[in-house]
Amino acid sequence: MDHTLDGSGLLRDLTEAHGPVGYEDAVRELAVAELDGSTDRVRTDAMGNVVGSIEGRSAPDFELLVAAHVDEVGFMISHVDDDGFLRLDALGGWNPEVLRAQRVRVHADGGADPVDGVLGAVPAHVRDDDEPLSVGELAVDVGLPAEAARDRVSVGDPVTLRAPTERLGRCIAGKALDDRAGVWTLLRAAERADPAVTVHFCATTQEEVGLRGARALGADLDPDLALAVDGTLERGVPGVDEADRVTELGAGVGVKRKDATVVPTPTVVEWLETLAADRDIPTQPEVASNIGTDTGALQTAAGATPVGALSVPVRYHHSPVETAHVRDLRATAELVTAGVDADPADLRGVVER
């Protein structure tokens, strides 16, 4: 497995793959291929979730679930107009202001070749600064007249952004680092792990529209302990007050205390922070009010389940230039691996306290 963090290798393949909500096939195939080489068995379910399981060496009856979601925010074609322009409905949450003048890809139904297009921009000469913008007002130009456009694409086809993954100084920038960064850390941990307990490495679907894949998965597996790895907000940019920045790029893996969907189990939070301190893994506390993660679904899907959440700080969330720091990526992968390889007695102590 190539874990190079220079804009090439597996992380690039994950981020540049197209996997909009509900249509995660390309990313799922990457996850299956990687997990097939590092776990005892791999399976998928009706939601498209991928589960790679390693049977525990000495305590296989204790089951740990580690999850990261493979879907990315995108769109679905809602109409092809008489001029050949495509109108859109959102798959996940967007700030429409970041979408002007972006390149997109339409994933045509039935395995047909994808169709590339652009989201148009309003020239400065005629722009109304007070004009509001919504996703419904955007139009994709595929450079074809209406009849030809309708031959190539259809209402209901999913659409994603097209963007390269590049090394920027000490960071990686590209689309879908939320949450392909988390998937990368999960796959790295699966390759390096030698767990005493049974571990399920899970690539989940449809997180961006209500944690749906994780909710189904948690009910099917019913683990003793669940951890989710996701991207979180990092807003250390000009014009944002320090109190509103949530996390800091380069300060380490975020250990979540709260978000809009979950308050992680305090004993699990304490265990993760102790584990990191013992191994000199940099961490930072995370409190977020306006994002959600799979952790919230996993906590209650099968009754009451102890949960924890680890976060990769991601700047410019839900945009074609999402940015993560190499130090944070490595720290997250190290802490996930440490958790997976933890002593069974420690794990039992965490969930039984």
Description:
The structure is a single chain. By secondary structure, the protein is α+β, with helices and mostly antiparallel strands. The chain folds into 2 domains: 242 residues, 3-Layer(aba) Sandwich (Aminopeptidase), CATH 3.40.630; 87 residues, Peptidase M42, domain 2 (Elongation Factor Tu (Ef-tu), domain 3). It is 27% helix and 28% strand. A hairpin with a 5-residue loop joins strand 4 and strand 5. The chain is globular, with a radius of gyration of 21 Å. InterPro entries: Peptidase_M42, Peptidase_M42_aminopept, Peptidase_M42_dom2. This is Cellulase. GO terms for molecular function: aminopeptidase activity; metal ion binding.
In short:
It comes from Candidatus Halobonum tyrrellensis G22. This protein has 2 domains: 9-72 and 175-352, Aminopeptidase, CATH 3.40.630; 75-161, Beta Barrel (Elongation Factor Tu (Ef-tu), domain 3), CATH 2.40.30.
SSE string, helices as H and strands as E = HHEEEEEEEEHEEEHEHEEHEHEEHH
Widest beta sheet: strand line-up: 1-2-12-3-13-16-14-15
**Coarse structural class:** alpha+beta
Question: How would you classify the quaternary structure?
Answer: single chain
Main sheet characteristics: 8 strands, mixed
